[in-house]
Amino acid sequence: MSRLLAQMRGLLPLLAALALLGAANAALLRGVGVTTDMTRFLPPPRSEASAFLLRELRSGAATTLLLVGIEGAPAPELARLSRALGEALRASGRFAFVGNGTEEILEAERDLLFRYRYLLSPAVTPALFETPGLRAKLEALLDGLRGSASPLLARIGFADPVGAFVELLRAWTSGSAVALRDGVWFADPPSPETGERALLIARTAAAGLDTEAQREAVALLRDAFAAAGPPPGARLLVSGPGVFAAEAAATIRADLNMIALLSSALIAAFLLWRFRSLLMLLVTAVPLSAGVLVGAAVVAVAFGTVDGAALGFGMTMLGVTDDYPILLVTQRRPGEALAATGRRIWPTLRLASLAAAAGLTAMILSDVSGLAQLGLFAAVGLPTSALVTRFVLPRLVPPAAGIAVRPLPAPLTRALLALPRRRGVAWALLATAALYLIAIGGPPQEQDIAALSPVPAAQRALDGELRRQLGAPDVRMLIALTAPTPEDALQGAERIGAALGPLVERGALGGFDLPSRYLPSERAQRDRQAALPDAATLRARLAEAAAGLPFRSTAFDRFLADVEASRTLPPLTRADLANIGEGSLLAARLGPLLAPLPDGRGWQALVVPSDVRDADALRASLAALRLPGLLVVEVKAETQALVDAATRQALLWCGVGAALVLALLASGLGGLGPALRTATPLAGGVLLTLAALALLGERFTLFHLVSLLLLAGVGMDYALFIARSADEPVEERARALGSVVHCTLTTLLTFGLLAFCATPVLHAIGLTVAIGIACAATLAATLVPPVRAPS
Q1: Which helix (H) or strand (E) holds 201?
Q2: Which of 254, 209, 228 minimizes the C-alpha distance to 68?
Q3: The pTM is what?
Q4: Cα–Cα–Cα angle for 572, 574, 575, rounded to 5 degrees
Q5: Residue 621 backbone phi and psi in degrees, to 5
Q6: According to the model, what pLDDT value does residue 401 have?
Q7: Cβ contacts of residue 92 below 8 Å, gap of 6+?
Q8: What is the DSSP letter of 787?
Q9: Whole-angstrom distance between the N-terminal and C-terminal Cα of the chain?
Q10: Which stretch of 429-443, 533-547, 714-728 has the lowest confidence by average pLDDT?
């Protein structure tokens, strides 16, 4: 019993250190705050078009859209669910706009639009008020009233027999495939597979890249649907950029949590099996906790906050610091004190950690803030963990603690020791990999950004279907116009609309949305006012047009009075919409398309073409306008250009990092020659990894490049420790090889699992590191010649 108590007392310093580190990490993260701003991982703009695109990604209304469908029930029940859902969303305060039919138009707004119908409606032309035009409209009104007239026609038909208001509302929904039934929108025609589908569109008040707010908005929507009491079989369909962002973040978080739990369990089991001591689990946790603490503190000082994604990935990268205490324990000679082992291996461990940190130069100097945070976090954490392994761990581990590693199986040890005799095979394999990469023109590059999305193809297909039904833009191409005033922006949009109209007629373009559809320019409104006849002329034409029709002589007095009043109305402006109050349909539709620039130096009108079939014709038509401030943005091409530019810059900084690593190795190993020979397995591991990825059909992305940086940092440990022992007795070489095997397996238990993730980014990182680590460790045991131990 006394011996057990003594052992427990011996563990107190180690347990106290872990508790202190845990408390310090928790206090630091609470104090500095962890953000989830995904814009930190967006590259800086490289052109006017990319600056516009990044601005729209950060704060554009298109990223806040939620597209909703309800199906699987009879139409009246779907209408009830749609109304209940719309009311709940509007009442929540989390949505800037909710639309599911005409019922959401505020009374004040309906009155305003009806009063301004002859200034806003595209149907208003001089011919509309000529006698033939009036006759045709009166006959249509009579037919409608005799048949199954819509409630709207029965209510406003005599006040607006020319149908200007109806045409105004119809223009707002042009391009959509909706029908208004039971006061809500339905897909028209119904799907033969799923039947009737009620439709709803909403814009969240929060930014689209605020993944937590988007997650909460989607959860609120689902809760509201459940609270509405859907019948059995009724289904809620939700899509949109915010849904994609929230689901992607949730998928990545779930994958990381699963990998963290599974890899922790596997590594713990492996360490228990190999070291036969629970103490080893505590020993490996100390350097990691210290590295996280110091890395997060430095990032917080440098950037003012810590990004959650950078922290999560950074902790995964620092997981390789498990190698340091494993190296400390497995390198200990029989009867040697742990402190003496630390002193003996410290020059090599120090050089390995500093070289690994230098290899992260490309990330630290990246102008992508999130990557810079990640690089700094890891570059600080790695040497910190090495320092703790050298100077702190030997003081925390009780001298009497029995941590003994199981020896490798004898056949495996003999095979590893024999690998240097297979250098010819290794060089032949490297030459083959190099020739293969040359033959295929280098690693295939990923050209489709969508391939990196964790959103399933079925969800993307649903998004496209809902967009077509609701008439929401599929923003593959955007046309932006900057102007000094809202009026200039609206006039420019009208010129763009006039140029695009013939393209729609020719089939080169499916349609387009623009701000002047909802709010014509003051000039256009005055032109429509000029088309309105005076009271006497209109009364005479109306009497002639109504001859022989069963209308009372006073039936259209309101119409006559409204036209006369419209002749002197001041044009409706954007500022007038502020008087309507919150929930304005017009303001909600206009807001994404006409807005002040963030710097306050003008206004931006946004024109969104859809179903572009002839992009060259579109560009030619716009170029002919010679509009100042006009910008055409092809979203996919511009996004790819941003990623390509970031990758090129990262490759440049990788070269700088490689030079720094070689300089460190040269200074530690006694010259450039030993440094190059020691770095050869790393370069060979990278080469074999690139060839293997190409053979597996992987396409190279920025995430593969980041993974190669991590691979280089981890592989440096293997090469240096094997090189240090290469001219030692067989027992020492076997001990070094055993250390490398243990480190390799613990790394594979973490990153190898990532390779099985469905998330493309995590899959790319895991597969790259897993292949690379196995190749680098094998090449280190095969190619590294003996070098003088650094001092």
Answers
A1: strand 197-204
A2: 228
A3: 0.73
A4: 95
A5: -65, -40
A6: 59
A7: 220, 224
A8: -
A9: 45
A10: 714-728
